[in-house]
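Technical note accompanying the year-one report. For the benefit of new consortium partners, we illustrate the data format agreed upon in the data management plan: each record pairs a sequence with a structure-token string. No post-processing was applied to the example shown here.
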Amino acid sequence: MTFKMLFRCFYAFVLILITTMLIWTCVVKTLELTHSSNTPDHVSTFSSNTQTEYRLLSNNQKPDKKLWIVIKNQGYIAELNCEHYLKTLCTDQDNQHPFRRIDHVTVQRFNDKYYIQEMSYTNTQNMQQNTVKFSAQDIQAFHQADLITLRNQIITLSLFALFALYVCFRILRNFRKFLNK
């Protein structure tokens, strides 16, 4: 076997592996979409005290665009989509600053997505207290928007996976010709 044939075998193997991962991702995301419910799975309430201090971190810039509820010096306990909170919690002035101490927060979870129902926090720089509340209709709208985004991602990923499957089929069908080309 020449180097060219080995490279082409490896190239075909990589293409088949990537195609398999794309199809698997489509299946998993489709199952996630079909198993999503319109009622919250769990409602959690967190309050800062002397032992545990919760902070609110946000990054409204790409690629993250996330909002995190963090236990100080330990890591995050909830990751939220910043798209829904751009005007209230993911503002440019608070971007990437750990100055918001959460006094009380109620979070609703739909499958693996979290949404803030109500929250009161204190900005530790100027000691200003703020409160935000979202109605059940707002949270349902946030959840529906996330489901629509997921559906669009699945459609795009499926088209790409079908094209990759077509290419793999063509390579496998004419494998000898592909190796000796």
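Partners are asked to follow this layout when depositing records. DSSP finds three helices and seven strands in the chain.
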